[in-house]
Amino acid sequence: MRSYRVSPLAPKSALEEWGYSVCQLVFGLLLRTIFRMRFADVRSLPEGPLILAANHCSFIDPGVLGAIADRPIIYMMHAKYYDLKAINWFFRMSRCIVVDEVADTRAALRASEEVLRTGQVLGIFPEGHISRDGALQQPQPGIAWLARRTGAPVIPVHLGGTRKVLPRGSKRLRVHAVTARMGPPLHIVDYPSGRVGEQRFADDVMLAIARLGGVAPPPPTAGLPRAAVAAAVAAS
């Protein structure tokens, strides 16, 4: 049975605003103490529409990203997680955007576009899913589409150690140091229009994330046919 869903643009009540702040504070405190979280180049986020793009190695990544941000973040997330009854209340309170693969996934992109047009912060994991082996995967095209449609700058973020804390498929937290490093923004206006330009932009977002973490970037997608890109992403 599908859990209750809330539009990402629905106004938050005072209780929801308070609840989000408390959850962010508590999770951030846990990260800084038990998990010895270290920051590098983390700074105040500028006003206006903004996309935070990070690598995705663990289910806790959104919480880590939220802990380093001084503005509320609205995330895109798969319906299978959003609809989990035990934590559905938190995703509703956070106004997460549901990516429902059974329905039209383009609806999630349109909702994300509206979020950015209202001047909010959108959190995206360009790889589209949690990496199986921790290595960076090729990006999906949605991040470039959103940047082009809204003009929102993209700030790359590398999250380290989260896979050690909660690996994909695991239900048990492990104590391990977590790191977060934020890079300078990328602007899609600096890239040619068209599909190849958008692929290069998405590739450069992943390249920036790789450099922040000192890890290998995924193979570039620029110039590849759509079918080849889709196949590569699906296989990762």
Write the layout of secondary structure elements.
Elements: H1 14-33, E1 38-40, E2 50-54, H2 61-68, E3 73-78, H3 79-82, H4 88-93, E4 97-99, H5 106-117, E5 121-124, H6 142-150, E6 154-160, H7 162-165, E7 179-182, H8 195-213, H9 226-235
Parallel strand pairs: 1-7, 2-5, 2-6, 3-4, 3-5
Antiparallel strand pairs: 6-7
Helix pairs in contact: 1-2, 5-6, 6-8
CA-based gyration radius: 17 Å
Structural class: alpha/beta
Major sheet: arrangement of strands = 1-7-6-2-5-3-4
User: How would a textbook summarize the main sheet?
Assistant: 7 strands, mixed
Helical content (DSSP H or I, runs of 4+) = 25-40%
Instruction: Output mean pLDDT.
Output: 88
The CATH topology assignment is Glycerol-3-phosphate (1)-acyltransferase
Shape designation: globular
Distance between the termini: 29 Å
Can you tell me the number of structural domains?
Answer: 1
Percent of residues in beta strands: 5-15%
The arrangement of helices and strands along the chain is: HEEHEHHEHEHEHEHH
Query: What would you say the CATH architecture is?
Result: 3-Layer(aba) Sandwich
Poorly predicted parts: none
Tally of helical runs: 9
Q: How many DSSP E strands?
A: 7
Would you state the CATH class? Answer: Alpha Beta
